[in-house]
Amino acid sequence: DRPVSDIPDWDISPLFSVLMMVSITIIPVLVRWTSQPASYQAIQCESGREAAYVYYTPGSYINVHEEGDFFLDWLPDYHQGRYTGYIHSMPYMEWVSEFQDIVAPTTIFEAVDLKTKRWMWVFIDGALLPENLNGVLGLCGQYRASDTGQAEGFFDAASLQFLGK
């Protein structure tokens, strides 16, 4: 048994602080330099439609169903009537008209267009989306013509192609 006075009095907090500061500043830079953006092949869309490329993750959407479908309203599935009621409590009132004008069945998700690096809201028939597959989707559709639709990136997709992981 050694007396307490013989135990070195080390304070590792300065070392830990320096290590944390270096990690916080260097690691994000390394990630930025070494990461590669998702790659995709360009798709051809029919006349009047434009292409958008998004990374899709299953489960990151809301499905809006017709009133006649039988199920309990629970995230991510809602009947159109309940969905319309919920969107009126959104903090961005200028978005309400964009979200309430959809026709069921529709799936809604938020994504970043990989080509333009722009945030967008995608409105698409959920039957077109791949089940249990995440990856890059090529969407053909058009941005909404309204000022809010253009500014906030509300995109009505008519078709898609799964372009891979």
Q: Which key phrases capture this entry?
A:
single chain, 165 residues, alpha/beta, 4 helices
In short:
With 165 residues, this protein is of the alpha/beta class.
Major beta sheet summary? 7 strands, mixed
N/C terminus separation: 61 Å
From N to C, what is the helix and strand string? HEEEHHEEEHE
Class based on secondary structure composition and strand pairing: alpha/beta
- Helix proportion of residues, in percent? 25-40%
Mean pLDDT: 85
Annotation field: number of helices: 4
Q: What is the approximate shape? A: elongated
User: Strand order across the biggest sheet?
Assistant: 1-6-7-5-4-2-3
Low-pLDDT stretches are none
**Strand elements, count:** 7
Radius of gyration: 24 Å
Strand content: 25-35%
Structure, described:
- It is a single chain.
- The chain is α/β, with parallel strands linked by helices and 165 residues long.
- 27% of the residues lie in helices and 30% in strands.
- It is built from four helices and seven strands, in the order H-E-E-E-H-H-E-E-E-H-E.
- A seven-stranded mixed beta sheet has the order 1-6-7-5-4-2-3.
- It starts with 12 loop residues before the first helix and ends with a strand.
- The model has no long low-confidence stretch (mean pLDDT 85).
SSE blueprint:
Elements: H1 13-34, E1 50-56, E2 62-65, E3 77-79, H2 80-87, H3 93-100, E4 106-113, E5 118-124, E6 135-143, H4 147-152, E7 154-164
Parallel strand pairs: 2-3, 5-7
Antiparallel strand pairs: 1-6, 2-4, 4-5, 6-7
